[in-house]
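Sorry, explain these tokens?

***
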Amino acid sequence: MFLWNWFVHQLRAPWFLWTMIVINGLGSVYGFIWYGDQLADTHPAWLRIFVPDSPTASTLFTLVLLTYTLGRSIPALEAFASVTSFKYGVWAVGVIIAGAACGDTLSWQHYMLMISHGGMAVESLLYARFYTIRLRHIGYVAIWTLLNDLLDYTLDIHPWLAEQLEPYDHIVGFATVGLSFVSLALIYSLVRFYRART
């Protein structure tokens, strides 16, 4: 218990925040590079904002961490960053495992992606104790995430799936929408839980 309390206290310590900022920032840059080919293949160009889901989420979370270094909180930013980081962190791990179950051969990159995306999901939960999110902010994120899901799976601009998983594209789509609702509910529930304890 002592170690856990010490760790929680470090979450907003300057050295820890800057470490997380660097990790998230570098991960975001790598993510946008990783999406380079898909972004180039996405037309019309205005749809490209809906393509790089994970690096956009980690970029938003980097900004949240930066606001904490300044002693500030921006609830709408926290809501977008936390919900999308959890959602796409879990989504990526799930899709990689599902692809492997369908016969995709996992490489070191798959394991690296599972670790990094798992980290996105975990950090969004760890920092929930500090969020200043209200229900209306969750509502804003709900509109964005569900619109993103709709466009991803009706216009086929979702992140590229393993070839073995492509025949199950529609199942992935339904699971993604379900994950959006879970992510929205979980983040808001955690915020209310921590708020009730203060």
